[in-house]
Amino acid sequence: MAREDVPVDAAQPDAPFHTTGVDHITMIGSNVEDTVEFYRDLLGMPLVLRQPNLDDPSQTHLFFDAGDGRILTFFVNEDRQSNPQPHRHRVGSVHHISLSIDPHEFETVMESLDDAGHGYNVFDRGVFHSLYTRDHNGLVIELATDKYEIPDDRRAEVLAKTQEIREADGADYAEAEHLEEALADLGLDAEPVELPEAPTGAGV
Fold first, then answer.
1. 4, 51, 138, 181: least buried by Cβ within 10 Å?
2. What does the alpha-carbon distance between residue 22 and residue 88 come to, in Å, rounded to a whole number?
């Protein structure tokens, strides 16, 4: 099947079973101190569980709540030093992790990253607003927020409708007007949020 023939649809596909959500994502981290400093003390993610890695007890397994009960975990070891150099990507590697932030705290997030000495870039991605930074091990962390207050249980539906409208418009990317039309078509009276102006980053 050609890539343009793969349907984009919020309905569940014809599959032998369906996942029910993200339980957790596990990364290979460096050490406890640096990992806790970035994810708990800077990003504000509670450390909710700490125990030995059950497959390798020489490592510690840290569990952080991303804010909605979904969990981000790290295998860490005190013998490992943090390495802030950017990752070299290959097929199968993680390009970045995107975490949701409150749109009303977008300016506070930027100020906090500045205060902590973490560089970042901000982009208007058409259907959402994103800030990109790196953790202490060079992993790209996207902090994203929707431009409208869309109910979580309707986000997939809104994105699929936005895609439909984008294709009909012949646009290369989903833009704010496609999102706004999708919300209207679906009868969602979502409130817009105020966010700083930013470039799209397209082609960068």
1. 4
2. 25
CA–CA separation, 160 and 66 (whole Å): 25
Distance CA 31, CA 136 (A): 10
pLDDT score recorded for residue 203: 64
3-class state of residue 198 by DSSP: coil
CB 142 within 8 A of CB 101: no
In this structure, how many other beta carbons lie within 10 angstroms of the beta carbon of residue 165? 19
* pTM metric for this prediction: 0.89
Query: pLDDT digits over 74-95, tens only?
Result: 999 999 999 999 888 889 888 9
Number of domains composing the chain: 2
Same domain flag for 114 and 35: no
Q: Which residues pair with 98 in a beta bridge?
A: 142
Whether residues 124 and 63 fall in one domain: no
